[in-house]
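Long-time lurker, first post. I've been practising inverse folding by hand and with some scripts of my own, and I keep getting stuck on stretches where the structure tokens seem ambiguous. Below is the full token string for one chain I'm working on. Before anyone asks, I'm not after the true native sequence, just a reasonable design that respects the backbone. If someone could post their per-position residues I'd love to compare against what I wrote down in my notebook.
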């Protein structure tokens, strides 16, 4: 792969100008969403990014310095890239410690770096936002050139785009960025009519285990129901924060408690229309939820985000985070459920491994050369492992198949 910057064969017209924006609040909401709303992912929409930044969750003091690239034709916003200057790698869910270690051995500063992603959101779909009427290929090239120059001016180690949209990743990989394959999970609706038809695809032992897990909760008097975000009081969002914090506190320094209480306080007004919660209650709880999981929905996609409970209860996590959302997804005609990062136990409950892509371009030539030399072999091994696991558990589709 070429290590030289991409320069579009078309010269950028004088009517187009680029501007770096220090916070999403500086961009008109409607202008931004004209570009973001047509996408499958909800996590590049203005409200979600504003929630991250205005709540202090993704802000410079937290090591996430907003630095968004925008492209204007006169007063019209025609393209944008949500970007953050990072002083660490926390909250990215792409574990680049080996590259940071290599930089140290070479005497190169790995931080700060530029990251393109929706903060703390390990869900596939990142890409540049481009107006439908614009020349996407040309704009992508000009924006990548500007990002490359920005990294040089600011003495950043390079730029990376994480959890990229697969088709967009192909375009960027041809522009001097090195693609890196990682495993993600996906549940695909094969036109199931109900949960029982979904269970029919499992072996008899697996069906028995899942039914046993669900019936155990009912015998304990725990009922889980799916409730839209607009149907919950604000107090439920405060409880969701406490459950989210409790879940992460259990993992100590390895937890992922990146969101502030303010994020959850602002959430119902700004993003409640995209939320659906699995809410668990028991006979003894007097209506107070004993556990909650929060999902985000857009079009025919469902995304698992946060989960927590009052106290540990066997199988409650599986019901609130997998079974009940899958049951809801079947009833609503959802095509794909992306449950988020981590947890091999998802595989035994019907999720498949699917590749996700990050794209990287280091400024230092030695760093770039090492990545480009070895990444093909790394990616080949990763795809082979994804395929082997899917075939073993499901007799399933190969990793190269785009189920999205």
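-- Answer (accepted) --
I ran through it position by position. Result:
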């Amino acid at each position: 792969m070429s290590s030289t910057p991409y320069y579009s064969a078309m010269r950028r017209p004088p009517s187009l100008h680029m501007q770096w924006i220090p916070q999403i609040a500086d961009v008109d909401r409607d202008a931004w969403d004209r570009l973001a709303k047509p996408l499958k992912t909800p996590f590049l929409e203005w409200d979600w990014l504003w929630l991250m930044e205005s709540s202090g969750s993704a802000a410079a003091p937290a090591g996430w310095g907003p630095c968004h690239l925008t492209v204007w034709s006169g007063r019209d916003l025609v393209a944008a890239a949500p970007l953050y200057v990072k002083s660490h790698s926390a909250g990215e869910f792409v574990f680049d410690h080996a590259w940071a270690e290599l930089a140290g051995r070479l005497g190169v500063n790995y931080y700060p770096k530029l990251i393109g992603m929706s903060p703390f959101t390990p869900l596939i779909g990142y890409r540049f936002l481009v107006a439908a009427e614009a020349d996407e290929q040309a704009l992508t090239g000009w924006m990548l050139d500007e990002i490359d120059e920005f990294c040089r001016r600011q003495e950043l180690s390079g730029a990376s785009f994480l959890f990229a949209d697969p088709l967009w990743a192909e375009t960027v990989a041809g522009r001097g960025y090195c693609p890196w394959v990682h495993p993600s999970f996906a549940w695909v609706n094969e036109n199931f009519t109900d949960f029982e038809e979904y269970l029919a695809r499992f072996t008899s032992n697996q069906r028995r285990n899942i039914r046993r897990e669900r019936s155990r909760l009912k015998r304990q008097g725990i009922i889980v129901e799916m409730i839209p975000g607009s149907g919950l009081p604000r107090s439920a969002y405060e409880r969701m924060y406490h459950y989210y914090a409790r879940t992460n506190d259990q993992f100590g320094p390895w937890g992922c408690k990146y969101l502030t209480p303010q994020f959850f306080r602002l959430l119902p007004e700004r993003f409640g229309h995209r939320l659906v919660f699995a809410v668990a209650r028991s006979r003894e709880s007097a209506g107070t939820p004993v556990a909650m999981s929060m999902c985000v929905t857009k079009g025919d996609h469902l995304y698992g985000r946060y989960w927590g409970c009052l106290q540990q209860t066997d199988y409650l996590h599986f019901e609130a985070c997998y079974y009940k959302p899958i049951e809801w997804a079947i009833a609503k005609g959802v095509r794909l459920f992306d449950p988020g990062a981590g947890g091999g136990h998802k595989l035994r409950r019907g999720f498949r491994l699917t590749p996700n892509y990050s794209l990287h371009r280091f400024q230092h030539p030695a760093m770039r050369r090492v990545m480009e030399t070895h990444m093909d072999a790394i990616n080949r091994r990763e795809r082979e492992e994804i395929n082997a696991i899917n075939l073993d558990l499901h007799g399933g589709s190969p990793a190269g198949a785009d189920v999205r």
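A couple of notes from the structure itself: The radius of gyration is 22 Å. Confidence is low (pLDDT under 50) at residues 1-9, 396-404. Happy to go over any region you disagree with.
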